[in-house]
Amino acid sequence: MKGRVIKSTGSWYTVLAEDRFIQTRLKGKFKQGDLKLTNPISVGDWVEIEMEPGQETAIIRTILPRENYVIRKSTRKQHFSHIIASNLDQAILVVTMKNPRTSLGFIDRFLVSTESFRIPAIIIVNKVDLMDGEDAEDWLQDIRDIYKPLGYEVLEVSAMHDEGVRDKILPFIQGKSSLISGHSGVGKSTLLNRLVPEARQETNEVSGYSSKGVHTTTFAEMFFLKEGGDLIDTPGIKEFGILDVEDTELSHYFPEMRAYLGECKYNNCKHINEPGCVIIQKVEEGYIHPYRYQSYINILSEEDSHR
Ligand SMILES: Nc1nc2c(ncn2[C@@H]2O[C@H](COP(=O)(O)OP(=O)(O)OP(=O)(O)O)[C@@H](O)[C@H]2O)c(=O)[nH]1
Ligand SMILES: [Zn+2]
């Protein structure tokens, strides 16, 4: 039977297969290619399962090849990675101008990650009800001016006060598998509860497990839209870093730079201060936004200092 992993709690995985939620577990070892993983299975994985004789539970026999995945370095084990979610159609970044403030630099790091994972991204600006004054207007205008021309959708909502928030977002998530990310406090849970009103109930169910003393590190959980499609929430995972991107590769993950790659004088150009650099020229001519170029330089130097 084929199904999709929708939740992982310790050694048990909830799989949705043939319209049923089935508790499954792994038996034996799984080869993961070159990846060294702390979790062999992630939410979003498609798996082949087999019911245990005379039981309501099943064994995972095969993990089907992942179309894509979001991964981060393990905080517990050196040289190991942790898959946050897989088989995604898009990643949603929720940002706010205030309480907390999301910086453009953070947005750029996120977008570099999703570009490197080959996952489309959209930006939801939440708490627009708190926007007030010139500073807020400038921040919002920058977001519109910078990201929309690059092809990233920018939606402006108030999850708390806007009754129409669900209708506004639905066309962008219906029929898709979307990961929700963003700083703590930007309103991810509030938004999720608007989009999937039953979600809160589900969350309570998880804490119900823990009161029985079962190990419940919930890595991620999938919630279903009644119109089709799903949302993956990642409690406890506030952000994922940029993983193993080579200096000369970084510009590939800036869509506005991609168009000019190969045009610089030196083919290993890092676009910092090299003579004949077309990227620097395009920044000067106004084709590449200076904030984006600044983020590019910041990421380059931060990644260097991490080595
Ligand atoms: N003013 C305003 N407050 C909001 C809005 N959406 C959410 N909030 C508030 O922001 C706070 C954080 O919201 P959450 O939904 O818990 O944020 P979160 O992103 O899930 O936070 P973590 O669980 O820590 O990752 C809560 O007090 C919400 O009531 C909004 O549109 N406007
Ligand atoms: Zn260059």
Summarize the structure.
The protein is α/β, with parallel strands linked by helices. Helix content is 28%, strand content 24%.
How is this structure best described in words?
By secondary structure, the protein is of the alpha/beta class. It has eight helices and 13 strands. Strand 2 and strand 3 (20-26) form a beta hairpin. It starts with a strand and ends with a helix. Zinc ion is lined by residues 264, 269, 271, 274, 277-279.
Small molecules held by this entry: guanosine-5'-triphosphate, zinc ion
Q: Tell me the strand percentage band.
A: 15-25%
Helix content: 25-40%
Radius of gyration: 21 Å
Question: How would a textbook summarize the main sheet?
Answer: 5 strands, mixed, barrel
Count of separate DSSP helical elements:
8
CATH architecture of the largest domain: 3-Layer(aba) Sandwich
Write out key terms for the chains shown.
13 strands; binds guanosine-5'-triphosphate; ribosome biogenesis; five-stranded mixed β-barrel; alpha/beta; Ribonucleotide Reductase Protein R1, domain 1; Rossmann fold; 307 residues; two-stranded antiparallel ribbon; OB fold (Dihydrolipoamide Acetyltransferase, E2P); metal-binding; binds zinc ion
Topology overview:
Layout lengths: L1 E8 L2 E6 L2 E7 L19 E6 L6 E6 L5 E5 L7 E6 L3 E6 L8 H13 L4 E5 L8 H14 L5 E4 L8 H9 L3 E5 L6 H8 L3 H13 L6 E7 L5 E4 L21 H4 L19 H8 L4 H16 L2
Parallel strand pairs: 3-5, 8-9, 8-11, 9-10, 11-13
Antiparallel strand pairs: 1-2, 1-4, 1-12, 2-3, 4-5, 6-7, 12-13
